Structures are given as C-alpha cells and as structure tokens.
C-alpha cells in the first residue's frame, strides 16, 4: 500500500510541474517511467542512457513534453528507483505510436541490460 501511495504521490507532484510548464490539456496522456539501475551500471553508462532517453523527443514527434530527474524524496519509499522520466502525449494514439517506434525500441535495447527494475504508469488526468 505504501508503494502505491508513494507512486501516486510522485505522479501527482510530477503533474503539478508538468501542467504549469507545458500547458497540458485534459486529454493529454502522461507516461511515467522509473528506473533502478543494476549495481554494475557505472555513472558513465547511466549518463549515456539518460542522454539517449533525452534524445527521444527529437526522434519521435508524438512526444509532446519530456522531463526527468533523480529521486530526492526524504520519505525513503523509492524501493531503489533512482531515475524518473515523465513524457506527455496528446492522447493514447500518440503513446501507442511511440511504443513500437524504432527509436524507442533501440533505446530499450540500450537500457534493458542495465536495469534491475523498471516501473511504468500511464494515465490521463481525471482531476476536476
């Protein structure tokens, strides 16, 4: 239950910043990705992976906005997840175009072997 609460709290905080900066619309779809790297992932490798993720918006036009950061929560509920990425799409159709996109697949090959865990949550804002 704590994990669900922590994840929802993170998503809510991410949305607060995203909506103010990116002028989100009610139909926007938010794609939240959380990474826990394997111990053998060097700082240089992590930097390479982050740079490759940052490059996706220039390769995939359906990505409406992109932001990322490292965990700095004092709550200690992160379960080792260290990096958070928040992508926004205009709708589910654009997200569905992104998922099988060759650039996204290529990124998946780069990152896959270096992750100890990954969490992905997609949602459309339901707040009133």
TrEMBL record:
Homodimer. SMART domains: Dabb. InterPro entries: Dabb, Dimeric_a/b-barrel, HS1/DABB1-like. The lineage of its organism: Bacteria, Pseudomonadati, Bacteroidota, Cytophagia, Cytophagales. Pfam families: Dabb. This is Dabb family protein. Residues 1-20 form the signal peptide. It comes from the Bacteria. Gene3D superfamilies: 3.30.70.100. It comes from Larkinella punicea. The keyword Signal applies.
